[in-house]
Amino acid sequence: MNRWLGMSRPANDECEELGGPHGFHRPDSRGVIGRRRRMLSAAALVLLMGLVAGLPSLWTRDLWYADEIRLTEGARESLQFHDAFLPRVNGEADLTAPRLPYWASALLWKAGAGAASARVLSILSVLGILAVCFVAMARCDGLAAATMAPAIALTTMVLFWHMRKGGAGPFWALLLTCALLAGYQAINSGEASRRAAWWVASYASAALAVLALGISAALLAGVVLGVYSFVVRKQAVKAVAPHLLGLAAFTGVIGLWLAAVRHAAPEHAVALTPLTRDLAGLGGALREGALLKAILVTAAALFPWIVIVPGAIAAALHNRREQGASFPLFAAIWLGALVGPAVLGGREGSPDYAIAIVPPLAMLCAWALAPGGAGLGAPSAAQRWLLRCALGIAGVFIGLILLAGLLHLAGVSYLLVGEGHVCPVTDQPYSPYALAGILPFVGASFAAIIVAFRTPVGRPDQRAWLLILAVLLIGIPADVFLTPFVNAFRSARPFAEKVVQRVGQEDALYLYRKDYDGLYNLYTGRARIPVLKNEKQLLDCLSGPSVFVIAEEKRIERVSAPIELRALSVAGGRVGHRYMALLRSAPGAED
Which residues contact 539 (CB under 8 A, 6 or more apart)? Predict the structure, then answer.
């Protein structure tokens, strides 16, 4: 066990009690109280890091991305249509996406989250992932690793980013993580009653993950748990009764979902489509011939901690036969099983499986880096060299990202090409106050990296915490100082407010081209804004009375009568790099 807690290594690898495996002598009451206080303090630190990293986005940024717009609007329309079983976006049923994220987002909307419901769902899901990592490591490896694992997970690029945008990714990743960890506890549990309870929890969590992601969630859970059982030679499948109970829980959850969906959409194919759609994109990288690009994108999503993984896996394999090394081996198998989907997935129409890699990656890295020799108790010279190089590479990556980002954000890249001191995102002059606010944090982040390089290699945990601090010091101030400035440029809210002022509820409102599903519904409060698919439909609509059309100016230029259409513009505004116009039919137009 971890020397940081002053405990010895357990005689078995089962993790039953919070704070470590049992098999120890019973501590006195003072020791128990002190350990609980340390546990609560560590849990509070993890919660604080998560809240500070995620909450600013609720106030500094509007909806920018298609997935969070669809999820948010789907939640709003499900409440507006009083139909929780069939999500709608722009008045049309969305028969392809899994329902569970829509339901969760709708519950949050009803609870008061409003237009931030999808973002709140992401924040809560990420906090759930951090909590699961904390508890799992506390049960199996002590408080030092338990505190470090959530911090590593949070500062992995893919999770750090997804906490700032609404989406279903963190939600289903949390459910899959719970299913796998419950299965691990079931395999290693000695008591029959506990083993049955853990299998029921694992199967039920897998069923919920299927409803949030698709059938690949159950396949991945089965592969990970099956391979782990085979490697450690645990006869987990010998006792049939716990698996029968688990299958009953799995089929019960899926059956209730199918019954609910069939009530709203009786067609059997419609009910099953969301469960199989996630498999459609897994071969996309191979079909598109972009395998190398997919590998690089996946690796970038897991920066900076992916460079620690080879050393952590080497340590897990080296110590796999030692007592207490079962969980790191499980995390290594878990991570390896998800690499293929993470690389081959992520295409359009397929989920980003890199999110699901974060929990095992974080726990494996924390196990190897935490003090007390849990991961590298007696490391070989090769292991020490590999770990030292990995931490150095991670620090270099963070430093280069900071330097490149600072130069780019300060407008240096634009100055070099003679385009003036402008923001590379908005093409507008920078706010000196935003730069002045973020520069001290950038300096502190660089200082943390420098101190990390000067820290003795014998304390990899100190180096890791300094790198965690470097990421937090640059990511959080960027949300506070720079994001509001970019939001003023990218948000559709100002233009939508002009639309609301001009268009009455009795007037007809259309969209020209299907590019903005749900965005203007959300900001104008309309259940449906019909989409005009071609030029003929656009001109026909504008020939009627009291008709308004939202269109991008660039597309107006491509129609046969752009001058006449520009004369019909009654309002306009920039939404990102697009200039949008609100067209109104001529006052004398006839039916």
Answer: 559, 561
DSSP string, 270-284: HHHHHHHGGGTTTTH
Helix (H, G, I), strand (E, B) or coil at 350: coil
Which residue is associated with the tokens 């060299």? 385
Render pLDDT for 291-303 as a digit per residue (tens, 0 to 9).
777 788 888 888 8
CB 488 within 8 A of CB 62: no
The pLDDT tens digits for 427-448 are 666 666 676 777 788 788 888 8
Amino acid at 191: E
Query: What number of other Cβ atoms are within 10 A of residue 335's Cβ?
Result: 25
- Global confidence as pTM: 0.87
- In 3D, which of 53, 7, 34 has the Cα closest to residue 145? 7
Q: Which residue carries 């502190």 as its tokens?
A: 444
The domains of the chain are located at 3-13+50-379, 390-490, 493-584
Cα atoms found within 13 Å of the Cα of residue 590, Cβ hemisphere only: 0
Task: State both tokens at 446.
Answer: 């660089």
CA 300 to chain centre: 14
| 573/580 Cα distance (integer angstroms) | 5
- Find the farthest-apart pair of alpha carbons in the chain and give their distance in angstroms, rounded: 91
Question: What are 460's two structure tokens?
Answer: 């990899």
Q: Work out the mean pLDDT of the chain and round it to a whole number.
A: 79
Closest by Cα among 390, 488, 462 to 60: 488
Give me 454's structure tokens. Answer: 């000067």
**How many angstroms separate the CA atoms of 179 and 222, rounded?**
10
